[in-house]
Inverse folding.
């Protein structure tokens, strides 16, 4: 059996960022990713000030700023019976940009030392070593790895969160499709985030540059379509936008079909984030494996980046650098204390984000004006009039 000091399961945003944050602190890790290369499903990702602060700490923000434009405005419109009912415009003073997912994961992966990421490495289960209590990771190819520290960044269907005995995630009755559309002669849309809710459909678009637009379509009630292949995802999306104006239909019709992803939206309840046990021995989780949330605030990815910075800081504070691959001179107690500090530091931030995301999602889902108003009042009572205060959070220095 192979032995490794720190194993990270999952090479998505959370896994790569955690490995990079540890690397910046002089601590080695190995990332096990089931895919054959870094994955960029989801096309684009809106990244707000708090996310950029974390990217600054990881040392990849300058590279990403070169390929993403600033967004100065967010416009939300409610349409009923084909007429504009309500519109809210938010002037964004801080840093907000849409990044191509591919650019983000590549920037993180490129900054890691060679050999850190092991592709085609799917973990299927975790066992506990009877003598040391360290986790033993079992891979689909039959190999096993004993890790001194195991960090689960394996997304919403996390095997590691099952090992922590966290409850199953809950499902919104919504499906979302994300994709890119290229307009060779320019799209002509203003450089702002536009979100529109009409009937059961919430659509949004965000220009990346003069020619390319990132967009999403969320159907609030359709939990049927699974989207077997790219073509059927495109067809389902076209059906969803059927009632919208020509520019939205055109955007879906001429989209880059290969960029489409269909996701059934899930969340870990704020209640479970408040009381969940996020450490078992020297095993913990980060990113969606810890706190998958709906996309309604656009904070899941940025929260994963914050997790990475805080976890690496806590581990480095207790362990210090240069322990070699196996962390031989590092006590289990100090690792456990470091993970507890990480969980404590993250917990209330994540309870706030997941509660606000949940309430925002429910307010968009309901057809009843009275219930919507109730959710809005609750949001104002809990989070104040400044509903984007969550973007001002600073996860601190690495
Ligand atoms: C419609 C939609 C829109 C969104 N928009 C935004 C946005 O604008 N801004 C934002 O910040 N966030 C957004 N999010 C949330 C964001 O996409 C996620 O929070 C983020 O991708 C989480 O990253 P992660 O690394 O934790 O998980 P993932 O991206 O799911 O990565 C998990 C990785 O683990 C690997 N893996 C899984 N299981 C195993 C296994 N058993 N063995 C080995 N490898 C494994 C997977 O292959 C994958 O590479 C959105 C989400 C949705 C659904």
């Amino acid at each position: 059996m192979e032995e490794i000091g720190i194993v990270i399961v999952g090479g998505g945003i959370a896994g790569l960022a955690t490995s990079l944050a540890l690397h910046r602190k002089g601590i080695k890790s190995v990332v096990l990713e089931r895919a054959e290369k870094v994955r960029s499903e989801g096309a684009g990702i809106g990244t707000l000030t708090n996310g950029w602060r974390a990217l600054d700490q990881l040392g990849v923000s300058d590279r990403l700023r070169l390929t993403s434009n600033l967004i100065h405005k967010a416009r939300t419109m409610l349409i009923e019976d084909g007429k504009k009912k309500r519109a809210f415009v938010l002037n964004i003073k801080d840093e907000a940009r849409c990044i191509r997912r591919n650019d983000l994961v590549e920037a993180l992966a490129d900054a890691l030392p060679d050999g850190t990421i092991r592709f085609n490495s799917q973990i299927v289960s975790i066992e506990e070593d009877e003598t040391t209590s360290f986790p033993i990771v079992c891979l689909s190819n039959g190999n096993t790895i004993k890790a001194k520290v195991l960090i689960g960044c394996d997304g919403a269907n996390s095997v590691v969160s099952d090992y922590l005995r966290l409850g199953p995630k809950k499902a919104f009755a919504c499906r979302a499709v994300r994709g890119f559309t290229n307009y060779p002669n320019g799209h002509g849309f203003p450089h702002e985030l536009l979100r529109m809710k009409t009937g059961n459909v919430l659509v949004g678009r965000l220009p990346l540059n003069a020619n390319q637009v990132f967009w999403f379509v969320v159907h609030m009630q359709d939990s049927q379509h699974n989207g077997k292949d790219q073509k059927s995802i495109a067809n389902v999306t076209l059906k969803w936008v059927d009632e919208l104006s020509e520019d939205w239909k055109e955007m879906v019709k001429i989209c880059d079909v290969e960029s489409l992803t269909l996701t059934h939206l899930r969340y870990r309840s704020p209640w479970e984030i408040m009381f969940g046990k996020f450490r078992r021995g020297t095993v913990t989780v980060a990113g969606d494996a810890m706190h998958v949330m709906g996309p309604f605030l656009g904070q899941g990815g940025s929260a994963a980046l914050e997790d990475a910075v805080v976890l690496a800081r806590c581990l480095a504070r207790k362990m210090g650098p240069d322990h070699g691959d196996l962390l031989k001179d590092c006590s289990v107690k100090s690792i456990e204390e470091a993970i507890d500090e990480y969980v404590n530091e993250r917990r209330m931030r994540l309870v706030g984000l997941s509660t606000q995301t949940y309430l925002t999602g429910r307010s968009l889902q309901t057809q009843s004006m009275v219930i919507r108003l109730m959710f809005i009042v609750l949001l104002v009572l809990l989070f104040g009039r400044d509903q984007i205060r969550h973007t001002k959070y600073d996860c601190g220095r690495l």
